[in-house]
Amino acid sequence: MSKQRLYIQEVATRDGFQNEAVFVDTDAKVALINELSECGYAKIEVTSFTSPRAIPALKDAEAVMHRIVRKEGVVYTVLVPNIRGAERALSCSVDEVNLVMSVSESHNRRNLRMTREDSFAQLREVIGVVRQSPVAINVSLSTAMGCPMEGDVPAAEVLGWMQRFADLGVHGVTLCDTTGMAYPSQVKALSTMARERFAALELTLHFHNTRGLALANTLAALSAGVDRFDSSLGGLGGCPYAPGATGNVCTEELVHMLELEGFDTGVDLEGILTAASQLPGLIGHDVPSQLLKAGRRLDLHGMPECDGMPKQRAFA
Q1: What is the per-residue pLDDT across 25-56, written as a single tens digit (0 to 9) for each?
Q2: Is the pTM value of this prediction over 0.85?
Q3: Could you give the residue numbers annotated as active site?
Q4: Structural domain tally of the chain?
Q5: What range does the domain containing 31 cover?
Q6: Stretch 163-167: mean pLDDT
Q7: Residue 91 belongs to a domain with what CATH number?
Q8: Is residue 308 part of a domain?
Q9: In the list 9, 143, 186, 189, which could disulfide-bond 104, CB 3.0-4.6 Å?
């Protein structure tokens, strides 16, 4: 019996690096993306074409996009905030642009400094420009499963924004648990409704591990038929409105779990662990990944010598 195929989309080089105080050198970014391209991802979010003044960590967006080695079968996507960003991205022959807004009014005002309607109007213009090219368009809806300022976000609100973007002809929508407020039964219910109503859209789920529920939420989404997930190498990333929280669901932990559960992710776990082990040296601090610390489930250890060991210790 063949395994169910899932699609893993790496976001560390955009969503992760944009939050780091240390600028990751362009050569290092290119080398890492080239390494990840060989690991079997469905998609890699390479960078962001936001103003370099706003996100200096990604000021080398054009240089990175022009220098990476494209791997056939991998979609190279970039975040685009406005028409200027779209023009820059299109000049680099990206495969896809990713547009972002919040379904929560409060979060959108804090994060993007505009109302939701203003964001929608701006993104509608971007979509009009990009649709004149063969480049695909994905929309990421932040705070789709909870807002840190407003609390629960009604599912009808999320589905309504999905409909508005579907009507503009986007090919995919990502539902984002921006500050890790989602819980499994909520995820399953929302995912089921989204899949039933928007069967033609490529649906992605984007979880944060802020409250330790990212892997549980992934299993809930899987039970609703979702087969595409964002994740971040080492667990990099996060949201400034969840102070002290961990970031996105960790790619190596996600792949490790999915493989144990019998799914085919297409991702080379050993390869991404090797890549993740380089991150502390690139960003100057440890990363949240527990798999880097503990190893895979069946990475076994040799028997310790008994002589000299303390007596009567027991571990549950």
Answers
A1: 999 999 999 999 999 999 999 999 999 999 99
A2: yes
A3: 239
A4: 1
A5: 7-294
A6: 98
A7: 3.20.20.70
A8: no
A9: 143
Tell me whether residue 94 is in a domain. yes
Give CA–CA dist 291/289, Å, rounded: 5
In a domain, 117, yes or no: yes
Residues 133-144 have pLDDT tens digits of 999 999 999 999
Least confidently predicted of 103-112, 157-166, 270-279, 307-316: 307-316
Q: Residue 278's CB: how many other CB atoms inside 10 A? A: 15
- Does residue 301 fall inside a structural domain? no
Cβ neighbours of residue 250 under 8 Å, at least 6 residues apart?
209, 214, 231, 232, 233, 234, 235, 288, 289, 290, 291
Q: Are strands 7-10 and 75-79 parallel, antiparallel or unpaired?
A: unpaired
